[in-house]
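sry for the spam today, last one i promise. struct tokens for design, 386 residues
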């Protein structure tokens, strides 16, 4: 098997599974893009098996510490292990991220399950070349009605791949309802704007909704209304939801109808909306998209967070609650919390931490791979100044 010799002190010697171009001492045996390769240290000792793509910044991603082929048996084993973990973590196995890339030992493979519809993404070249094997494994483990290959993520460009959405198993599905935490959502994984739901936030929806009874709620960056609907169902006095996407707002309206709750959806830019909003809310939720995908733009991103924190806090009176989320791995928990403190200082408000939030357990964190831990959230209450 062809492979790479890794430089001393590379990440992989600290438990990470990624090899950057600068970590490579030399290649042997002429590995081709998309190949399964072996990794060795500078004394020729084996470090495991990886997938290879020289046109990506991350040239190799290890998926086993042993010698291992990528065959149907491998994928069946990994998917079965992922399913067992989700069962043990108490995740609804009919509606979850069933396989999450590095965290489940299959770098670049994401598998979401919406009952009998499976949505597959392949974000690395090697896995993309093995879609047929993954498909066979999925049929063996789940026998799904439909498999959709939803490869429209921009991440694929980093691996030199095109974007594409296609049906690879079963008949073309229509939009269909799924139920989660007692709330019905309509998903349309083939023709919809995105894969489906923000599965990573499902637990936070319930955690925030548990505080919403009797409150006037503002859900900022609502998408199709995960937080808004959960709060309305939990007995909020009123719920308003803001998203810049017209598609998201129509999906939200449809979902509100399906659940027979009152949610007012407004298509607007949250930055503008908060500027002119009046102080008529008891609970404000902020769940923006990642403001940065890299370290370079982190400063600008933090300015963005500061602005929405400041504006939200100005709208809240004593007893008011802000739930704020950050899904950028580059902004650490500490940095994000500092940002909240700085905004509260400017707004002259004293905050008490009520609860911390994180990604749902179907997005498992491997501490040796810090990139797997990306979503953090805080719910804070404005208390009388001291
Ligand atoms: N809160 C949602 C997920 C939000 S994803 C949930 O829990 O399911 C981020 C959303 O922010 C997307 O729907 C996107 O359309 C929206 N968005 C991005 N920039 C925005 C802006 N400046 N103003 C309002 N919405 C924005």
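last one done:
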């Amino acid at each position: 098997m062809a492979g790479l010799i890794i430089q001393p002190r590379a990440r992989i010697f600290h438990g990470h599974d990624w090899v950057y171009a600068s970590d490579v001492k030399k290649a042997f045996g002429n590995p081709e893009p998309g190949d399964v390769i072996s990794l060795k240290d500078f004394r020729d000792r084996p470090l495991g098996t990886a997938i290879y793509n020289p046109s990506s910044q991350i040239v190799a991603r290890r998926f086993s510490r042993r010698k291992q082929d990528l065959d149907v048996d491998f994928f069946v084993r990994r998917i079965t292990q992922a399913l067992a973990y989700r069962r043990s973590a108490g995740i609804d196995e009919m509606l979850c991220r069933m396989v999450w890339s590095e965290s489940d030992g299959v770098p670049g493979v994401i598998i979401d399950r919406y009952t009998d519809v499976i949505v597959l993404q392949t974000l690395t070249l090697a896995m993309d070349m093995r879609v047929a094997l993954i498909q066979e494994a999925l049929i063996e483990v789940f026998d799904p009605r439909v498999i959709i290959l939803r490869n429209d993520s921009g991440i694929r460009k980093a691996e030199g791949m095109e974007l594409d959405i296609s049906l690879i198993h079963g008949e073309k599905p229509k939009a269909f309802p799924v139920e989660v935490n007692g709330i019905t959502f309509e998903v349309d994984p083939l023709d919809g704007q995105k894969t489906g739901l923000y599965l990573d936030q499902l637990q936070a929806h319930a955690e925030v909704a548990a505080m919403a009874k009797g409150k006037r709620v503002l859900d900022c960056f609502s998408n199709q209304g995960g937080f808004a609907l959960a709060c309305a169902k939990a007995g909020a006095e009123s719920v308003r939801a803001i998203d810049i996407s017209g598609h998201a707002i129509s999906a939200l309206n449809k979902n509100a109808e399906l659940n027979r709750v009152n949610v007012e959806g407004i298509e607007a830019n949250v930055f503008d909306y908060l500027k002119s909003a009046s102080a008529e809310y008891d609970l404000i939720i902020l769940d923006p998209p990642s403001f940065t995908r890299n370290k370079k733009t982190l400063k600008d991103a933090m300015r963005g967070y500061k602005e929405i924190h400041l504006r939200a806090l100005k709208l809240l009176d004593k007893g008011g609650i802000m739930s704020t989320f950050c899904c950028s791995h580059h902004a650490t928990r500490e940095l994000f919390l500092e940002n909240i403190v700085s905004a509260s200082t400017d707004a002259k408000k004293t905050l008490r931490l009520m609860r911390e939030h994180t990604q749902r357990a179907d997005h498992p964190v491997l501490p040796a791979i810090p990139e797997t831990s990306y979503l953090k959230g805080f719910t804070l209450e404005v208390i009388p100044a001291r």
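The pocket of S-adenosyl-L-homocysteine is lined by residues 198, 201, 221-223, 226-227, 242-245, 248, 269-271, 287-289 (CB under 6 Å). ok im logging off now
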